[in-house]
Amino acid sequence: MAHLEVDNIRKVFDTPDGKEVAVEGVSFEADDGEFVTLVGPSGCGKTTTLRCIAGLETPTSGKIRLDGRDITELPPNKRDISLMFQSIALYPHMTVRENIAYPLKVDGVSKEKRNGPATEAAQTMQIEDMLDKMPGDLSGGQQQRAALARTVVQDPGVFLMDEPLSDLDAKLKAETRKEIQRIHEKLNTPVVYVTHDQEEAMTMSDYIAVMNDGEIEQFDSPNDIFYRPNNLFVGQFIGQHGMNVAEAEVVRSDSDVSVAVDGYEPDLRLENPENLSEGQVTLGFRPENTLLETDATEGIPGVVELIETFGEEAVVTVDIDRSEPLLAVIDSNRDLSEGADVRAQIGRYAHVFDEETGDVLTHTMRGRKQPAD
């Protein structure tokens, strides 16, 4: 059973302007069968973290262990780790068989002993009938499978993948994503996967590390990352349309604690009302849970600014006075036009964040307010 432990690693680069901290105190673990994704905006430190695990960079401090063995300063070929880069990078002058077997050649495995593992890896990727072809004779999807076969041929303890789908078109990306998931389930080996694409992270992962400014903001399951973000950054970064935010205030009565936006007090059940003090807070809620009503008297008042239709759904931008515009996802067949006056109401899920730090104070769920004792 393989167990990868990344323990409080820090990476500092020397630059002409001084020191640049690329990774700061990153820690996580991955066991057999677990697919862990590092996701975040460009420059957040996810690729540097992966390169430290692979041995292409040496952490300034911290430890990396595989099955309890300290591999922090070992060269890449001594780590029992395989890395797939963003570029497919098949050698054009080699056959598919030779490309797949190349890591074994680098490790000093004889030609006779390389053929069996290369054939087995090709069978795993369902390209065994293409072993004697040249890369130029393969389609883009077949080349991607050959690159994956080259990654798995060594049967490493851990697989690392650095944005392997970013250069693919949408259709090929979806096909290859399924292929990676199939191979992962078959091999049952820990995978650490880097991407800036949150859709990849949400659909492929057992655990996600959302990174920002060299640190992990939240390490959790995709479900908890989406429904229970630790802070406003995670809430706004994760999700196809991000998260709506609105300035709100805490409203207290003798029997209840609630939040209000422009006098609108949504019917929300607070999980931890004791965390809220009187004053300003930030209310976050997703476009998918934002309802637009044209005849209602309750809700956040606004004007429809833009309607973008995507098949059965439409994304509506609503201009409001107190903060950035809100987004709402509605049925594209709904009779709603730009310029219409609407009231935005909060649906099932919402979150209350500290106005200054952005840390979550409480998660909320739509439901009837609890009666007073």
Automatic annotation (TrEMBL):
The complex is composed of two ATP-binding proteins (XacJ and XacK), two transmembrane proteins (XacH and XacI) and a solute-binding protein (XacG). Its main location: membrane. Keywords: ATP-binding, Cell membrane, Membrane, Nucleotide-binding, Translocase, Transport. Its EC number is 7.5.2.13. The keyword Nucleotide-binding applies. It is a peripheral membrane protein. Pfam families: ABC_tran, TOBE_2. The keyword Membrane applies. Part of the ABC transporter complex XacGHIJK involved in the uptake of xylose and arabinose. Responsible for energy coupling to the transport system. Signal peptide: none annotated. Belongs to the ABC transporter superfamily. Carbohydrate uptake transporter-1 (CUT1) (TC 3.A.1.1) family. It catalyses: D-xylose(out) + ATP + H2O = D-xylose(in) + ADP + phosphate + H(+); L-arabinose(out) + ATP + H2O = L-arabinose(in) + ADP + phosphate + H(+). PANTHER family: MALTODEXTRIN IMPORT ATP-BINDING PROTEIN MSMX (PTHR43875), TREHALOSE IMPORT ATP-BINDING PROTEIN SUGC (PTHR43875:SF15). GO terms for cellular component: ATP-binding cassette (ABC) transporter complex, substrate-binding subunit-containing. It is an enzyme of class 7 (translocase). GO terms for molecular function: ATP binding; ATP hydrolysis activity; transmembrane transporter activity. It is found in: Cell membrane. Residues 4-238 form the ABC transporter domain. It comes from the Archaea. This is ABC-type D-xylose/L-arabinose transporter.
